[in-house]
């Protein structure tokens, strides 16, 4: 198992949140959509009032959602040339805010995994812009298992570029043979060498894991 990493710092730098320290809780910031906690719904009138309130809040904050929606579409266009990607944000008939990442075409496991990748990136970048997130994102190899090698290469290139652009650590664990396959299928579009870390993960020994010990 190889570890790819890009961004400031390295794996030896453990963020405060990983050490169990409370680093501070910020109040809601301007431009951030804040939906009040749902209350038990007693009748149709309360439901209608809740739907109206959420729709009004969504309309009021619409401009703050333009960038995340646009970024999701841009990432989709970079990964797929024959599909459209949309981030749908709507209110359900029960007054619940619903966010749906969607790529057109079939809903195969690989496409759903790409949706997850793009949604993770969009959420992290949006949170970083509002200073509400740790600057790190980790993806395990399982996310990429069902994705075509060319799309995996695009995802890794996107992750590396956005990590540099927004100053966060992007860490990916991939099996060595899978990484070689992705590099070969990319036709030179992806080069893993600048990102491969010296850390090697293996289950051959008890101390071959990321934290140097085995969890039961």
Automatic annotation (TrEMBL):
Name of the protein in question: DUF2326 domain-containing protein
Domain DUF2326: 78-215
Native source species: Flexivirga caeni
Pfam families: DUF2326
InterPro entries in the record: DUF2326
């Amino acid at each position: 198992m190889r570890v790819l990493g890009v961004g400031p710092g390295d794996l030896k730098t453990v963020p405060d949140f990983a050490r169990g320290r409370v680093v501070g809780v910020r109040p809601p910031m301007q431009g951030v959509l804040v939906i009040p906690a749902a209350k038990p719904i007693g009748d149709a009138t309360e439901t209608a009032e809740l739907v109206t309130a959420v729709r009004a809040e969504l309309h009021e904050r619409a401009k703050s959602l333009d960038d995340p929606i646009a970024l999701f579409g841009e990432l989709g266009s970079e990964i797929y040339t024959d599909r459209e990607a949309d981030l749908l944000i709507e209110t359900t008939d029960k007054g619940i805010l619903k966010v749906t990442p969607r790529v057109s075409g079939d809903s195969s496991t690989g496409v759903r995994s790409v949706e997850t990748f793009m949604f993770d990136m969009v959420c992290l970048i949006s949170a970083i812009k509002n200073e509400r997130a740790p600057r790190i994102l980790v993806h395990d190899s399982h996310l990429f298992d069902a994705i075509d090698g060319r799309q995996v290469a695009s995802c890794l290139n996107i992750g590396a570029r956005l990590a540099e652009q927004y100053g966060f650590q992007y860490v990916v664990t991939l099996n060595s043979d899978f990484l070689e396959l992705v590099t070969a299928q990319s036709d030179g579009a992806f080069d893993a060498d600048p990102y491969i870390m010296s850390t090697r993960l293996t289950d051959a020994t008890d101390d071959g894991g990321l934290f140097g010990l085995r969890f039961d």
